[in-house]
Each structure stands twice: as C-alpha cells, then as structure tokens.
Amino acid sequence: MRKFTADYIFTLEAEPLKNGLIVTDDEGKILAVNESFDEKDPEIERFNGAIVPGFINAHCHLELSHLKGKIESGNGLVAFLKEVIATRGKENKDVLKAIQAADKEMWKNGIVAVGDISNTDVTAKIKTQSPIHYHTFIEMVGLDPAKADELMEKAIETANAFETSVSLTPHAPYTLSKALLKKLYNYCKHKVNPISLHNQESDEENKFYRYKTGDFVKFYEDLGLNIDYFSPLSKNTMQAIVPLLPEMQRILLVHNVYTSLKDVYMLRRFTKNIFWCFCPGANLYIDNKLPAFDFFKQSDYPITLGTDSLASNHGLSILEEMKIIHQHREDFSFETLLKWATINGARFLDLDKELGSLAVGKKPGLNLISNFKNNHLTEKSTVKKLI
After folding, report:
1. For residues 253 and 299, what is the distance between their CA atoms, to the nearest angstrom?
2. What is the pLDDT of residues 188-203, one digit of tens each?
3. Is residue 90's pLDDT more than 80?
C-alpha cells in the first residue's frame, strides 16, 4: 500500500483537494481519496505541486517515430505529407527501436493510454508488451471509389495482427471516397468500431472539397494519380463528410485547425457521438497555426488532446501540449485543460471505468505536476510519474 499527498490533488470527480491524500495498493488501484490525514503518518509520500490522473494521448502515430527530426517544419500540410511519403518507405533498421523508445517516452511522461494510428502491423508486438493501454486505428487511405473493397479487406487483415484493441478508420477527407464511407458505415452496424478522422488540418482540404483547386490537386498530380472521378462538392469537408459517418460509433475529429464556427454549429443538426482532438504541437510544427479554440466552446462535444507523431512534433508529452495551449490562452483554467488531457480521452477510448480520474476502484496512474503556480502551468512545469 502507498499513500500520496501534495499541495493539490485534482481528482476530476469533485473540487480539487488541498493537501488531501490518495491511498493505493501496490498495483496502483485507488483504495481511498481523503480530504485530510494524520500528519504524523510516516508512510505518507509528500510532494510539492499537483497530483493528477495519468494522461490520455488521444492521437498518435507511433509507427512514424523513426522520422523524428527528418521532416522540415513550417512548410504546410501538403509539403509535410509529400516528405512523409518519400521518407517513410525508405529502409530503416531503426524503425522498431524508435517505436520502442517512443513507447517508453510516453510512459515516462505519464501517458497511460493512447489512440494510435497505424497503416501497418509494425507496432503490434510492442503494444502487446507495453504497460500503456493502446487502441489502434487501422487507417484506410484511398480517394478512388473503385478501391474501397480492397482498402477494407487490407485494413481487416492488418487489424487481425493486433492482440490489443483495434478498429478501422478513414484517414482524412482528401484521402477517402463516399464508397469507402458507405462500406465502413455497414461494417459499423455489426461491431463497436470507434473512428479517428484527421479533420481540416489545412485550408487546402476545404479548397479541394469546395472547388477542386489548390495544393491537393497538385499533390495527386505529383503522385501520378488521375482523380477525374472526384468532383467538387461546394462544401467544407466537415459539412460533406460528417453526415456520412455512423451514428452508433464514437468519432474523433482530429486537428480542426481550419474548422469554422459554422462547421461547429452544423454538428447540432446530427446525432453523432463526436469528440474533438487538438494536437497544438504538431499544428505549430507543420503550419505554425492553432485552432480557434473559442469556437469549440460553442460545442457540446468533449475535447481531447493528442501529441500526433514524432515526424510532426519534438516529443510525445501531453503536458507539453497543455503548456502550448496555456501559453496562447491563459484564460483557460488548468482544470479545464486537465479534463481534456485525461477523462475526456478516457471516455473516447471507452477506458473511463479504469482511467481518467482519481476515484476508488480505478487504476488511472498518478502524475505529479511540479512548478505549478496559482492553478496555472508555467514554462518550467514538469511531469513525474508516481505510479
């Protein structure tokens, strides 16, 4: 049994406890959450800072970890995609080593669960051996409607290689077809299949859907692909795609950098189980732009946080993502950001019975946030995994 106290304990089940006490068994299962304790108890581990639940990384690409530092920053999404395509296929003996190091980095940074995007089964074995809870989204990439069956079959085959939980997902609006979405919709009628969709990461995506102009037209030309079958829809991608997504599944819309207030309001017309995901570190790395966070206050849907990949970020730390948002939006409370970083992600991954908040019976992990002042993160704030 272990006992922990700190200046503050954020349970996310009630108001923060000042100098409260968390009692766990040796495996990390919470036995008690107390508002007070015996100051003379020699077994209590005492810390300066705030104790919080383990973090949930709602969006990552573990299989791209070997691309850390190899993709130039600040050139926009289309240039980034071209570099990833050109670089990831090259023989690299360090792929597995980089994946393993990234997994350990996340665990050290207090991340206890990850929603991870995979195009292959290269991460399967490491995920089985990791203490982190992984849900893998097997990503289908293909704008050509004639290839929808092939994409589904390949994704199902890849999913079967994983022992940890998996589901099938489209990549992004600019790499999917209505035919693929229809097949996915039918597939989702028969099983639980949460979806993670890259959404409006670039304004070029909206131009492509509205007018069939911009960098994505050139992108496909450079790949030598004829896309005569694609016709402009005179709509933003969200307005075109969301109506085609299944009602019965949890849906994560990732990035949302160019999501408009009109797009946010549009969702009210549908009975979709939507979650938002922000990856601010990656957004600054790729396009030096952040989402209009205020727009999402008008939404009833929960917000989560992700790190994206080491191809598009300097590290895999949810605390660093929180710090970026705090640097740009000091009016957002620490507790608000903490919910984004923990319980909301746990709910999206359907892990909230065990993770995401500090409650008796849960085993959420305990993180210590140091250099925490006046209920705000600072540039010097750090995370230490306690259990």
Report:
1. 13
2. 999 999 999 999 999 9
3. no
**What residues are paired with 383 via a beta bridge?**
369
Average pLDDT estimate for 370-383: 91
Query: Fold match between 1-53+357-387 and 55-355?
Result: no
Write down the mean pLDDT value for the chain: 96
pLDDT score, position 275? 98
Phi, psi of 84 (to 5 degrees): -60, -45
For the domain spanning 1-53+357-387, the CATH number is 2.30.40.10
Closest CA to 286 of 201, 194, 184, 172: 201
Helix (H, G, I), strand (E, B) or coil at 278: strand
Domain boundaries, the chain: 1-53+357-387, 55-355
**What mean pLDDT do residues 147-168 have?**
98
Q: CATH number of the domain at 55-355, please?
A: 3.20.20.140
H or E element in which residue 179 lies: helix 178-188
- Neighbouring CB atoms inside 10 A of 47's CB total 16
Task: Check if the beta carbon of residue 240 is closer than 8 Å to that of residue 262.
Answer: no
Cα distance between residue 316 and residue 339, in whole Å: 18
